[in-house]
Protein 1
Amino acid sequence: MDKIDSSISVISDCTYPTPLKFAGRDSTAAIRYRRDSDRIHIFPCSRGGEEHATAPTFERAGPREFITGDPSRMTAAILTCGGLCPGLNDVIRGLVMSLSHHYGVKKILGVRYGYAGLVPNGHSPLELTPENVDDIHRDGGTILGTSRGRQDVPASVQTLLDWKVNLLFIIGGDGTQRGALELAEEFKRLDAPVAVIGIPKTIDNDIMWVDQSFGFDTAVQIAARVVNDAHVEAKSAERCIGVVKVMGRDSGFIASNAALASLEANVVLIPEVPFSLHETDGLLDFLEQRIRENDHAVIVVAEGAGQEHFGKNSDAAITDASGNKQHQDIGDLLCEKIQQHFELKQHPVNIKYLDPSYSVRSASASSTDRIYCTRLAHSAVHAAMAGKTGMMVSRWSGCFAHIPLGMVTRGRRKIDPTGSLWRTVLEATGQPCLSNGAHPAQQPHS
Ligand code: F6P
């Protein structure tokens, strides 16, 4: 593995005493300042001694005793990019409250429609205040609006400099964080001291170096309820199969966790694990056996699963504005293939197809996510005040930490088909290996 550089860049020295009132100046105080030397291990260490002491670490998040300058003279900007996710408004609220109440920042701009609001002819920004964000957490979505896609970096930087922004908070997925890194680099090239802080947002839970992304808890709760609904439907009709399609472009976290949270799914299909349809011991064989023995079945499928069943021509890369490959509709395909299969056997089945994708994404945050969003937002503000830049705040191994954007943009998080989450899914559903024994995920189940 390449040597890990987890160092965080800073825009200037910190010599200005923080205006924070609740933190103490020594270790006996109830709330301590963090130092950059407070670290967490990137990988869980199994051995102690020298190996433990030299293992790579992340800087811990939290308030610093000295910051870059007088916050009352600073201007902050906040923007949200990409698809919706429960908790976006909570993060915006947390940023505004911390900037204003904790540090005394007087001017906070809400950029409209993501990066599109930074280029000429974009919408004018909204002025955000504790008063106008006070109750936004009750609603899903983002009060700022969002969009996909990159915009011209020098033009965006010029807009932010014209607005006299010193602190920039960018909430979005891995593509958005790549954009944040480009902005941070351009500010550096121009020698402009602007702190650029990323906040990871993904309903798919697929950003690197994040324990679990905000909104995911909410997503699983809602999706699990729909899996229960599908089960009720499937059990209430003769020879009935409930199919639930959830989001998950390249990662099957929502599908797997919703199945585990409901405990009503018999099959989970995810992008990380290919499956056979018609072959012996493939999905259709399994469904036949399940209907014969139990008269009903529930399938949870992630949108990116089974793309291998669409044929070679469909491989032509159609991408969305964020550059993500757009997948074919596996939910529709499954329903069609299942229907055809049982009709050919002259013993048709009933199919109930439920697609809660956008309902999951547009919900307001659960209590767990709400707490998480506020803590992430406050960590982001503390980092910006300490002049950190080109970094993302995250919760890693249960601790809030600073992750360099260069590390975040190197890949996407996926379910390990040989790991314990997928094993638990197989154990809990009782689903067999559906890929002709070719896949390492095959496990004996009881
Ligand atoms: O943001 C991730 C995601 O929710 C994916 O799961 C999904 O493929 C995609 O966004 C769909 O978003 P939209 O319909 O807004 O382009």
Protein 2
Amino acid sequence: MLTLALPKGRIAEETLAIFSEIFGGEFAFSGRELIMEQHGFRFLNVRNQDVPTYVEHGAADLGVVGLDVITEQRLEIIDLLDLNIGRCKVAIGIRNEETLDWNRPDIKIATKMVNITRDYFAQKAVGVEVIKLYGSIELAPLVGLADAIVDIVETGSTMRENGLKVAEEIMGSSAHLIANANSYYAKKEAILDLHEKIAAIIQ
Ligand code: PRP
């Protein structure tokens, strides 16, 4: 049996819809259920940020997680497949009336994605002061906590509604199917079989 950790919400629903399409029948968590078994698979309903933990520790063989999270957390997992759902971008956001001044020493950036931010600025050989936040990142430049932000942009409405614009795109992201390395070797046949079926559906 393969165990998959899915991030609660839309990505879990869209992943389960792929399983329904492949195997038939309904794949869905009912009510507040956290574990569901269907068609020889066990699905775990976990918080988005916790998916990598379940997979890295091997409590789940597989997981669905954003490329942004894989990059930010430098996960020791096997990246199997881009599921092409949950598309978004990681971008630098700044107030509408401003432009990002790369010559300014120590630009202050508020973000949840500390590693992605540090790596991006290091690549450009620009000093940066990173201020770690856990949410509502768009607020920081509005109240002078930071000069700019690095955050996820999906529809763009959060930035727009808060008078911010994208100054630069750092990377594109989407949900990927990942595997625990030990599971990948121990259950290779089952994992490759599933991989093949999913890849055929999402082409
Ligand atoms: C994410 C992200 C932005 C927003 C972008 O936040 O941090 O705030 O979505 O989406 P949009 O471009 O479609 O407006 P999320 O809703 O995950 O909440 P968080 O602030 O708790 O991270």
